[in-house]
Amino acid sequence: MQALRPHRIVHQADWIAGHLSGRFDVSDENNALKTGYDPVARAWPGWIAATGMDVRMLPDVVAAGAVTGQCTTAAAQALGLPSNALMVAGTTDGCAAFLATGADKPGDGVTSLGSTLVLKLLSNTPMFAPQFGIYSHRIGHVWLVGGASNTGGTALLQHFTAAQMKALEPRLIAERELSLGYYPLPGIGERFPINDPALVTRVTPRPGDDAEFLQGLLEGIAAVEALGYQRLAEIGGPKLISLRAVGGGAANAAWTQIRQRKLCVPFLRARSDAAAAGVARLALKAMTGAA
Questions:
Q1: Which residues of 16-50 are buried (b: 16+ CB within 10 A; e: fewer)?
Q2: What gap in Å lies between CA 222 and CA 193, rounded to an integer?
Q3: Which of 4, 48, 66, 73 has a CA positioned 20 to 30 A from the CA of residue 247?
Q4: What is the pTM of this model?
Q5: Spatial CA neighbour of 271 closest among 240, 241, 242, 236
Q6: Is 115 part of any domain?
Q7: In angstroms, rounded to a whole number, what is the distance separating the alpha carbons of residues 201 and 156?
Q8: Domain span at residue 215?
């Protein structure tokens, strides 16, 4: 039996788009970043070929929002789409969520409060600082800079169920700072704003009151968020001027108050928290020039 050999490198988004368009040889700049694409030079770096890899397996890379072709007749019929439906290069889920919020000025930040804590800040220039886990995605002529921390909802679920946290929320006193100094992590290791694979969670001492313990955990995650935006400013990023939040944690009113107290910038309501809305805006702008 003949051994199977790699034929082409595709990301999940590329694979889905390929089934719609018939093209499996194209990717967007943001997804391609994960396989080593250089968004500043807008090229695959030479070190990839130097490893001996067959670079013909790599896709052609286009800007997020670029028109890449048309939907195939078969796909259009199966999905009830117009026969002339255009295919547009997308972006990662995190970038799409940023675009959905309506943030559009340098200094606008978006925090995703999901299973992990993800920060993105709109900047006119890219920033890369692997020592802090900071990287940049290119969207048109601007950049989304930031990083992803391991803290977040998964770390909270090490101590409370979602139902327990909901029940404790009315007992949180958001205007009072407990200053327990927590750094909640779900396991060993952190990526951003501290890049340390050996970092361990810090959630002691534990108060006897579960509400105080939960508030200490939320304060700890908010402190990591504040440190993340501070890191971005330290390496030359724009000063944070406003903040929007997406993800399940954004609905927690007490946590929002705690975060406002630590970040000291206007908190604005997201236009949408659906990543699908973000890529729809990206496609609309690419094809019509409308935001």
A1: ebbebbbbbebbbbbbbbeeebbbeeeebeeeeee
A2: 12
A3: 66
A4: 0.89
A5: 242
A6: yes
A7: 11
A8: 94-273
Residues 162 and 249 in one domain: yes
Report if residue 24 sits inside a domain: yes
Looking at the structure of the chain, the number of domains it has is 2
**pLDDT band with cut points at 50, 70 and 90 for residue 32:** very high
Residue 194: its pLDDT value, please? 96
Q: For tokens 């799409």, name the residue.
A: 96
pLDDT band at 199 (very low <50, low <70, confident <90, very high): very high
Residues 151 and 231 in one domain: yes
Q: What is the pLDDT of residue 83?
A: 86
Domain boundary among 34, 69, 90: 90
Residue 33 neighbours by CB under 8 Å, 6+ apart: 39, 135, 137
Residue 127 falls inside a structural domain: yes
Please give the single-letter amino acid code of residue 23: R
114 close to 248: Cβ distance less than 8 angstroms: yes
